[in-house]
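Standup, Tuesday
Yesterday: got the pipeline producing structure tokens again.
Today: sanity-check two examples.
Blockers: none.

Example 1:
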Amino acid sequence: MLFLCQHGYETLLERELMADGLTVVETGPGWAGAEPLPGDAVPRSIDELCFPHLTLLAPREIRGEGVNALAQQLADYFLESLRGEKIDAAWPCVFLETAEVPGLGRRASAVEKAFRELLEKKLRRVARLATPEVFGANVVAPAMRALHDWRPEIQVELIAQSRAVSLTKREADLAITLSRPPRGRLHVQKLTPYRLGLYASRDYLAESGAPTGLDELRSRPLVWFIDEMIDIPELRYLDQIAAGARTAFRSTSIAAQHAAIAAGLGFGVLHCYVADQDPRLERVLADVVTIERTYWLVSHSDERHLPRVRTVIEFLQEQVRGARDRF
């Protein structure tokens, strides 16, 4: 049986379990594994332990046609029982008295193996996060040191690109998106609005001058995406700024566009929270070129309570709150 507690109370939990006739067989940060002495029943008072955030995973009947179905039900029940807990460490896998769990029968060994594999996958410490390139490179990546210092057991895999990543196909655990996804088994929350503007290098402006309006901008060299390779509608905003304009350089990478603009090639639309920090750049036509977009934080409804996912969600929210003025 698995018992959970707040960090720092492990010794108290162990004493209380022993006082109620249980033998503590394993402990860790915020948890203890215990079982009755041979021949003893679980004390009736166990549910009345006066201990903060205590959870007892009691057996229940599990039914299913196959081994995988049984294991999935058992894993779902295990995770559901822990959903309300605030866990700051990885959960151990506790499967006590397997053969006696009702409904498993002779398939117990195979179900236990499948259950452990499912639980290991769901409770693994690697969180795969998909973000737009700019947000990933300029918000997520610089903050990874702080996340590692806070939760060193959590590893983040960052997918930073301009194409859409499917959470329903399990390509990632959570994602930052530019549009609110359609209804489905996803949990969606607004992360932050942000702005984009028109920029050029100070050297270019000193040599060629700033355009006086959008009409003049159409005759200047522009840096832009490769249109046919854009599969995110929110990135298609060139026509509303300078339809028919001549582009001098195109790239699927916003980082490459930023570098070309900063080198003096011409004008381009960049994220204000990044471009405003670059002393080589200057914003132009700010009164007529301001594009507003929103970052959405999306996760699987059935997995957002898992420690690795919840940790990254809370961390991203804190990072955005701390840099609200930049966006």
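Example 2:
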Amino acid sequence: MKAQDIGENCLTDFADMGEGEKWWGLTYNNLGRVYYSQGDYPKAIECYEKSLAIYLESLGSEHHDVASSYNNLGLVYDAQGDYPKAIEYYGNSLAIYLKSLGLEHPAVAASYNNLGSVYDYPLPKKRRRLPEGY
């Protein structure tokens, strides 16, 4: 059985729980990872956006799972070459991680790394700068 099949089966199994439950968010997030790894970016975005909406409703806007969803959306937009959207989502992720986990957490370092990578590759050397506040 493929990971995609397992994820879709989970959504069926969770049908009795109500769509606002955290488990729905986790399952959509995991399905988004599958689609992302397959290069199916529109489906990955769809799953990550559903995950984000569920997490925002069930966990609040400052939870680290919300930050993870923003980061995952940033990864997809980065892979598609939509750098302004990638920066927006990476920035949202970083802000939440800083607030919820603190400066020393590895997720904060990963967020800085993701933001930095957007500026490292697509732009000429002389234009590589982080926006103010980063």
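Quick observation on example 2: The CA atoms of residues 62 and 99 lie 7 Å apart. The mean pLDDT is 83.
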